[in-house]
Each structure stands twice: as C-alpha cells, then as structure tokens.
C-alpha cells in the first residue's frame, strides 16, 4: 500500500480531478514516471467512521520526506538533480494541459539513497486546466524553490546554452481529453 487520500462527498470534484490527472499521466506513459506516484486503487467509500460517504485514492508507496526539511543541507549537485526531476514533473503536467496550483516543498518528497537523490511530486488536488502555450513560465518551480534559485538556474542554463528541459510539445489532444473527462466524471 502507499499514500492514500480520502475525500468527502462534498469534495468529489477535487477527487475526480486528481484521479483523472493520474490516469491520464499513466495512459500517456504506461510505465509511469519516477517522480509522480502511480495510482494503485480508487473508489467510493461506502462505510467509514470518518467519511460515511466519500472517495478514496491510493497511490503507489514512495520513500521520502518533505523537501523543505532537507533542501538547505543538500550539496549543489544534489540540488540540481532535485530541480531537474521537479522540472520534469511540472513539464509532464504541462504536457497534458495542467497547471499545478498548490506546489511547494511540502508537496515534494525527497529521498536519498546510495545513488542520486530522487523526488516524488504529490498532491494534485489543486490543479487548473491550461492551454500549454498560455503558461510559458513555470510558476510551480518558483513556488517550490523560490525566485532566487529559479533565476540563478536559468542564468546558468542560458549562459551555457543548454536546451530547455521540456518533455516535448504541449499536447492539445491531452488537454481536450482531460477537459472533457473532468466535466463528465464530476456528473457521475
């Protein structure tokens, strides 16, 4: 078992949005993403002392602790690795027409083992649909790392001539798919 998120019936739209986002990401990349936990199970809660009726979403188990607890102690190369993984997660979200509106170091789990650090981005209850072209900047990165870190990294990247870290062009079809199913599922 892994992370579980329970929602009351009143917050059903939040549940459906988060569930559908994770399903779309899994459809787009069946083997999943290393930085976003895959959905394990989802359904309706019919009998619970906390939620007489509601919804539950169970995600694959991931290791880690909130990034804000470790960021200050990381070496520069570890910070760069974490930054790149979070940027890849944000790019994956943008590729399916999503802006993550509740990003922060509390929603990034950090894990260090013998290899490079790994991160898992969690908590997509606050998202907004977007046309990929409409959101050029990645406000999620600033919310997680702060404007100074983002600016320093961008300055280094452009002076070195690195390519952008995007996963590819924004997908209009994925945006349309998400937009249609969120509205459909919410009515069920």
TrEMBL record:
<protein>
    <recommendedName>
        <fullName>Protein kinase domain-containing protein</fullName>
    </recommendedName>
</protein>
<dbReference type="InterPro" id="IPR011009">
    <property type="entry name" value="Kinase-like_dom_sf"/>
</dbReference>
